[in-house]
């Protein structure tokens, strides 16, 4: 009963994709957002402050349409601005507005 010897068909492997070609569906590993690695900080705002932040976010988004601007982006930018002006002016703003 020994018939023909069975031979497996030759399988051709696909070509190796080079790193230059962007074939991934997601770019999470290559362009990971570093701001999400920290634990979140809760910030309490009044309704008026929330509206002010939303309006400012929309205005900045209109000026920079290629970048996604969120309320968190505005808050982080405000921290950098406050750091530049110094603590004296920041105390003055706190006394005046808060």
Q: What is the share of helical residues?
A: 40-55%
Question: Which value, in Å, is the CA radius of gyration?
Answer: 28 Å
- Characterize the overall form: rod-shaped
Average of pLDDT:
82
**Major sheet size, sense and barrel closure:** none
Count of distinct strands: 0
Q: What percent strand?
A: under 5%
Task: Give the helix/strand layout.
Layout: H1 47-63, H2 71-85, H3 87-97
Helix pairs in contact: 1-2
What does it look like?
This protein has a domain at 45-97. α1 (47-63) crosses α2 (71-85). The mean pLDDT is 82. The N and C termini lie far apart (96 Å). It is mainly alpha-helical. The protein is built from three helices and no strands. The radius of gyration is 28 Å and the shape is rod-shaped. It has helices spanning 47-63, 71-85, 87-97.
Keywords:
mainly alpha; 98 residues
Brief write-up:
By secondary structure, this protein is mainly alpha-helical. The protein is built from three helices and no strands. The N and C termini lie far apart (96 Å).
